[in-house]
Specification:
Largest sheet: none
Number of strands: 0
Helix content: over 70%
Distance between the termini: 67 Å
Length: 291
């Protein structure tokens, strides 16, 4: 479970105004929620989050940017907490509200709120139960995300790293369950976001590409594509002087080059050493029945 901190600009409000006090108190309450989440006291944390929402009702201007920034953090907490207590449907609803709110804030200040939009995408890959729905969400947010990288800052880079790691983790889980094609979609998105973040192919992208090719190799029809992918990434591994990754690529290419020849031989060998199930003759069955 993650906690996101969104620094508020309280200088935009009168120092001792009721609105400033509401935001300060709500921020302090969020810190308590963070501590309760760390202790896995989810129901207590949820109760405190509800109190924050009640407190925020007294704010005078619901369209105020700082008010909405704080609301993003609270919604993020509540989505995480609903998921922790296994109220998955409500968690997904909170996520939808979170994205709608972030879209408005991105219009106000894209550089400031871009990292939190990406973190919401990372959250969605963890809490959406339907992997199809998670992929559809990523595609839906793609247009906005492309614009976010026009002004890359440290916050965007850090948030993207978390998103990439989460996409890879989902891809690995799907691969381990045998859903290879769905797994490949998540790895493809992870590589795309990672390249966008760095602007070039780094060691991380090479490593993810190798992992993606290994999964492709489990699908017979995709083995030629895996070979092409490995051949394409090999020059990058050489340029980056990543000897271990270069050796991994060459080893996989070697396996693929002999794969077509070896498979029929292995099948023939296994058929010879595996005892076949023979049917008992009909007359034997009849005799045993009479006995």
């Amino acid at each position: 479970m993650n906690y996101i901190h969104i620094p508020l600009n309280l200088k935009s409000l009168t120092k001792h105004s009721p609105d400033a006090e509401v935001l300060r108190e709500a921020e302090n309450c969020r810190l308590t929620v963070r501590d309760l989440m760390k202790e896995e006291r989810y129901l207590d944390a949820f109760e405190r989050s509800v109190e924050i929402m009640r407190l925020m009702r007294s704010f005078s201007d619901y369209e105020n940017v700082e008010f909405r920034a704080l609301l993003v953090g609270v919604l993020y907490d509540i989505a995480e907490l609903h998921y922790a207590i296994k109220d998955y449907k409500q968690s997904e609803r909170e996520l939808e509200t979170l994205f709608r709110l972030l879209e408005v804030l991105l219009g106000e200040d894209p550089e400031r709120f871009a990292p939190y939009h990406i973190l919401a995408m990372e959250l969605s890959t963890r809490i959406l139960r339907s992997r199809k729905k998670a992929m559809e969400m990523l595609v839906r947010q793609k247009v906005l995300t492309e614009q976010l990288y026009e002004k890359v800052n440290s916050g965007v880079v850090a948030a993207t790293d978390r998103l990439v790691d989460s996409l890879c983790k989902t891809g690995r889980l799907l691969a381990s369950s045998g859903d290879y094609r769905a797994s490949l979609k998540f790895f493809a998105e992870a590589i795309r976001f990672s390249k966008k973040r760095s602007g070039k192919v780094t060691r991380k992208e090479v490593k993810m590409t190798i992992e993606m090719a290994e999964i492709m190799m489990r699908i017979k029809a995709m083995r030629p594509r895996a070979a092409r992918l490995l051949a394409a990434v090999l020059p990058h591994a050489i340029t980056l002087e990543t000897i271990e990754l270069e050796e991994d690529i060459l080893a996989l290419l070697e396996v693929l080059s002999h794969d077509e020849d070896r498979e029929p031989r292995w099948r023939s060998f296994l058929s010879k050493i595996t005892p076949s199930r023979r049917r008992a003759p009909k007359e034997d069955k009849q005799n045993s029945g009479n006995q």
